[in-house]
Amino acid sequence: xxxxxxxxxxxxxxxxxxxxxxxxxLREGGTERxxxxxxxHFSEAGTYACKGCGAELFTSNEKFASHCGWPSFxxxxxxxxxxxxxxxxxxxxxxxxxxxxxxxxHLGHVFEGEGYDTxxxxxxxxxxxxxxxxxxx
Length: 137
Description:
This protein is 12% helix and 29% strand. By secondary structure, the protein is of the alpha+beta class. The strands form two sheets. It has a six-stranded antiparallel beta sheet. Strands 2-1-9 form a three-stranded antiparallel beta sheet, with no helix packed on it. The radius of gyration is 14 Å and the shape is globular. The model has no long low-confidence stretch (mean pLDDT 93).
């Protein structure tokens, strides 16, 4: 099934609103180096929105310290905010890619069965550069 996100822009329009690195991650599926993102150790209350379109994706309530090198969440703010795709780009290691449902921007991956002490058995491993933190109103 083809997914048509509500927020659509041409590559040039995305380049006008994103830095080159943000474009690489959000539009080309790139990844930050582990331990380099601004939100890995960030713990202030609020929400995390998509850097590309502003859609609310995660909240600080579901954020946890996984010590994996990227910010981690055990669930999205709402299931309809995330799009899931099978990623077989690493030979022998299929993963599930997570994308913003509103603009189809690459966020990271979700992993299952790692044994974290969280309410779900999931770890959404998200690139900081794909997010913008919004403090509570």
